[in-house]
Design a protein that fits this description.
Layout (H helix, E strand, L loop, with lengths): L7 E2 L11 E3 L9 E5 L1 H6 L10 H7 L11 E3 L3 E3 L2 E3 L7 E8 L5 E7 L14 E2 H16 L6 E13 L3 E11 L5 H9 L3 H14 L10 H23 L1 E2 L21 E2 L23 H15 L6 H9 L1 H17 L8 H15 L3 H9 L12 H14 L6 H6 L9 H12 L4 H10 L30
Antiparallel strand pairs: 1-7, 2-4, 3-10, 5-6, 7-8, 8-11, 9-11, 10-11, 12-13
Helix pairs in contact: 3-14, 3-15, 4-5, 4-7, 6-7, 6-8, 6-9, 7-8, 10-12, 14-15
The structure holds adenosine monophosphate and magnesium ion.
The site of adenosine monophosphate has 16 residues, from loops.
Amino acid sequence: MKALTELTFDNRFAQLGDTFSSAVIPQPLHNPRLVVVSQSAMALLDLHPDQAETNLFTELFAGQKIWSDAEPRAMVYSGHQFGHYNPQLGDGRGLLLGEVVNSRGEHWDLHLKGAGSTPYSRMGDGRAVLRSSIREFLASEALHALGIPSSRALCVTLGDNPVYRETEERAAMLLRLAPSHIRFGHFEFFYYTNQSDALRQLVDFTLDNCYPECRSEPEPEHALFRNVLERTAELIAGWQAYGFCHGVMNTDNMSILGITFDFGPYAFLDDYDARHVCNHSDHEGRYAFHRQPAIAHWNLACLAQALTPFVSVDNLKQELAQFMPRFQSHYLKLMRARLGWAGTQPEDEGLLEQLLQAMQTSACDYNQTLRALAEDDPGVRDRFIDRQAMDNWLILHRQRQTLDPSALAQRQSCNPLYILRNYLAQQAISAAEQGDFGPVQRLHEVLQRPCQEQADASQFAAPPPDWGKHLEISCSS
Ligand code: AMP
Ligand code: MG
């Protein structure tokens, strides 16, 4: 266990200098309170849960105090937003406090979101509100618990500082952890501003610190792109398999590590709807659920463009052509596990497609229906409008299932009973806004073991009530 003040910092990104980031001091929250903390994220920093009870913990993560070895920096990047290039973005409401090295030698970026204005804040105030901080906290930790790669969240703090959105709200901060905060948009920024030396430095930094295994390849930069593409394919497969809609898949929100990053108006599907658009501001449905694989491919093409100084266009195109097959292979693997299908059969894709079509037509709750199938619930046919067609499908499905005794437990272990539904998040947020943090903490706790039935948790397994089905979540966070 480490004392809070004794974290070991090794600020590699800060050492790249002012071309890559600007020194900024966090603007503290007034009268800060700790809203929720993740014990498993604390362990990544070698911290013990009891340490979250101290005033010092809250002060550090509300920007009131700062480690002497931290070097807070705002990173510069750009990116394609909704298909259009935005030449100047950057950390407008968050700071990279520094990089902590834990006892296993892992580097973890400490990023304080909502830390006040920076040179990249444009018209914004640099603040984050409580609701969006809680939403990011819950989603990061819930995705991680589902085995889907994500940035992590250590804690949320809340202050008295007023923040003006549609109404007056309170400022909050989220402490985000990730092995790196480099985005596709970092490469685009240096490529489109013709800073070739800086782009070279960024590629070297990424190779050395995020993909050291690529250094021994004949063409390390080519290997870097192939590896980013592979991880991204695996990530999107996880999203599609568990019904996660990111909502703002701009290239500045795409992590070079292939982890879920920068949460906005995300949603886990309630009823299965392939065309679901969770971002109220996405009028054209660019980031609809079923478009996520194609958008990831498009975003990778933006990254490929920025890597053309190092990798031949032919090689980049060849790699890009692999994206959909790689995605599909990861996706089918996950869905076979969820359905308990043994081995692989040529008819699997078609059989899965029939199930999804039937869920779409019958507006079945996505994760509940899969859990019911996993548990061989005899009532599952009644969830579908065309029960005769479902009976026929179930015969084929059962022929595909493994019969060994551990099969049921296997299927349960990858079919969540508890999902971070928008209405559950909304209930917890409403309580927190009234000063009661218990419901957020409880929801977080339940979502840490999403596939295991838990005592007194049946209300978290319920599908949404009517009011909770079509909540509109906007970008104003
Ligand atoms: P996001 O939608 O969170 O990915 O943000 C897109 C860009 O807008 C990033 O450069 C953010 O840093 C910036 N941004 C978002 N909200 C604010 C805010 N309240 N103040 C300053 N910058 C912001
Ligand atoms: Mg962003």
